[in-house]
Design a protein that fits this description.
Number of strands: 15
Strand order of the largest sheet: 4-3-2-1-5
Number of helices: 29
Helix content: 40-55%
Shape: elongated
Number of domains: 5
């Protein structure tokens, strides 16, 4: 205790508690102020109740003694912040000679953990020149990871932390894995271990402990987190393969067994995993599914995201199984069942891997997906597909280039009627179609007047559209406004899911309202009476037959009257447009709904729906 305090204590002027606290502010001691930083007490005047402190941000600061007691914290002489006050040059030298020791010292002075931002605030400008800090920190991070004395997170927002105890480097890596809070973090820790496998050759106990931990963690999380569990087992197997004389313990959960048992959940589980990890998992499919492995891969092909589609295609091509994938894709295109990611892959690879798959069917499939997504509630799922159609300047030309004249005209007509595109985009896209197939130019030429092409519709479908418009204007839009107002009260709009969802719904409702108003203004209702049955017209029933005697019957109705289950066609549909104006005895090509083929039919009879 400082002599001045000892005298006051002996004289009974102060008690032991006051003396102890005052001793922490004795000349030569160090303290911390929130605003002025660390400081050293220079002198005090006990009778005058004053103390003078040299702070980092305020040298020679004279403070009331009581105020200083309340506003400062004591620092040990060995604290990093105390050394910044009196041994700054030594710290600067240490930052160059041993950055690991510098960071360890700093962390120890802050309870063993601190964020990178806090570390930068402590060092930049004082110990390390501000302009040099970023470069210094990148080098220091590498040294820290090599030393294994500090846990260095991959994200800047996560804290650095000192490792506890005298661990071996291998034990330190295992500790990182065991302390991870979720399977994703565990997988990253395992990736780091894979990069330092040499450490485990001399520490087999740590390796066995790690393998046991992986097996236990994956088994516990299979039901709720299948994707991360697969990722964890795949990283484990990659690590094991690096040791020539090492096998998994007999009781270990095998990746191939897990794949086989969870076949129905694989598409959702794999979607979102990194490309390299997906590839490693797909390579286990032969072991998991035997002779069925190609069938399983093609089944999930367009359900595993963009990265998964690319990796599956590469694997099948390398294994000589591309023909089976192509057959699957051609069939899916004919059924209009191919998903967004697979369609994008086919378009991007149309001049190489997917050249045998790419055809005019791709265009029809794209428009189907865009229209279906546009009419469904909720956020758009085909934005990337729409962007590809706009950004790839050659795509539309390649699509219509493989079509005959009628197919190209029908595709152009569908494109012009597609509600997804605004007028400017529609004109731009049609210009590409016309450039590739000039005979489609009449479609645009026929729309040169101010009035848009009239739509022939049944009275029932027109009333249905009007009812939907009325519901949107009088019910759904007012409710959406209320939802937005309520959602605003939930907090930060940047992280407010309810607000974003309501705004997405607002955009959809406004677009749908404009679309319905435009369509209704173009519509002409009819009951299909008095239709001329000498050729296929809107409001006729058409009988078709093949040379072998197979027959089909279709009813061609208004623009909004499609019902596949009743064989009712809109005259704007692909088949409806192909049938229009045909006569008895004419031949028409009909696409098979279940196979990638077309059938030739001869028109046998035409009768009016309402004679």
């Amino acid at each position: 205790m400082h002599p001045d305090l000892a005298k006051l204590l002996e004289a009974g002027r102060i008690n032991q508690a006051v003396a102890t606290r005052l001793d922490q502010l004795a000349p030569g001691r160090f303290c911390l102020h929130k605003a002025w930083g660390a400081g050293k007490v220079i002198e005090w005047d006990l009778p005058g109740k004053k103390v003078t402190i040299d702070f980092e941000q305020s040298s020679g600061q004279v403070m009331d003694l009581q105020f200083a007691i309340q506003r400062t914290e004591t620092l040990d002489d060995g604290d990093f912040r105390a050394k910044k006050v009196e041994q700054l040059e030594e710290l600067r030298a240490l930052s160059k000679s041993d950055p690991v020791e510098l960071v360890v010292h700093l962390l120890a002075s802050h309870g063993g953990t601190m964020t990178v931002d806090a570390l930068e605030k402590e060092l930049s400008g004082a110990v390390i020149a501000a302009d040099d800090f970023r470069k210094w920190w990148e080098s220091a991070k590498r040294s820290l990871r090599e030393s294994k004395r500090v846990v260095v997170p991959s994200r800047r927002t996560d804290p650095l932390s000192l490792r506890s105890g005298d661990m071996s480097p291998a034990e330190a890596l295992v500790s990182d894995f065991e302390q991870a809070r979720d399977l994703k973090t565990m997988a990253k820790a395992l990736e780091a271990i894979t990069g330092d496998l040499a450490l485990f050759k001399a520490d087999t106990a740590a390796l066995q402990r790690l393998l046991a931990g992986i097996n236990e963690t994956a088994a516990k999380n299979v039901r709720i987190s299948l994707g991360p569990a697969l990722e964890l087992l795949s990283a484990r197997d990659e690590m094991v393969r690096a040791f020539d004389d090492m096998d998994l313990p007999a009781e270990s959960l095998r990746l191939s067994d897990l794949l086989a048992s969870e076949e129905n959940r694989l598409a959702d589980a794999l979607n979102g995993l990194a490309s390299a990890r997906q590839r490693a998992i797909y390579e286990e499919f032969p072991a998991a599914f035997g002779d069925r492995w190609v069938d399983v891969l093609t089944f999930i092909f367009d359900k595993v995201g963009t990265r998964g589609v690319a990796e599956i295609a590469k694997l099948l091509e390398e294994r000589g199984e591309m023909k089976r994938l192509s057959t699957h894709l051609v069939s899916a295109l004919a059924r209009r069942s191919l998903g967004t990611d697979a369609l994008i892959w086919v378009c991007r690879e149309r001049d190489s891997t997917a050249s045998g798959v790419f055809s005019g069917e791709v265009g029809a499939c794209i428009l189907n997906l865009l229209e279906t997504d546009h009419l469904s509630d909720g956020p758009r799922k085909t934005t990337r597909l729409q962007s590809l159609l706009s950004d790839d300047k050659e795509l539309l030309g390649d699509i219509v280039g493989s079509m005959d004249v009628n197919e190209a005209r029908n595709f152009g007509r569908r494109l012009m009627e597609c509600p997804v595109f605004n007028d400017l985009d529609r004109k731009s896209l049609m210009a590409r179609v016309i450039k590739a197939r000039p005979e489609t130019g009449e479609l645009v030429a026929g729309r040169g007047g101010k009035k848009e092409e009239e739509l022939l519709v049944s009275w029932a479908s027109l009333e249905k559209k009007k009812a939907e418009l009325d519901d949107i204007i009088n019910v759904r839009i007012p409710q959406n406004r209320k939802d937005i107002t309520i959602a605003r009260e939930y907090g930060d709009l940047r992280e407010n899911f309810e607000y974003k969802s309501s705004k997405d719904q607002q955009k959809y409702l406004n677009n749908r309202k404009a679309e319905l108003q435009r369509d209704i203004s173009r519509a002409r209702g009819t009951d299909f009476k008095g239709v001329d049955p000498s050729m296929v017209n809107v409001g006729t029933i058409v009988n078709l037959a093949t040379a072998e005697g197979k027959q089909m019957t279709y009813t061609v109705l208004g623009a909004w009257d499609s019902d596949p289950e009743k064989a009712e066609l809109s005259y704007l549909s692909e088949l409806g447009a192909a049938l229009l104006n045909k006569k008895i005895g004419d031949t028409v090509e009909v696409r098979d709904e279940n196979a990638p083929v077309t059938h030739s039919y001869i028109i046998q009879s035409i009768v009016a729906v309402n004679p």
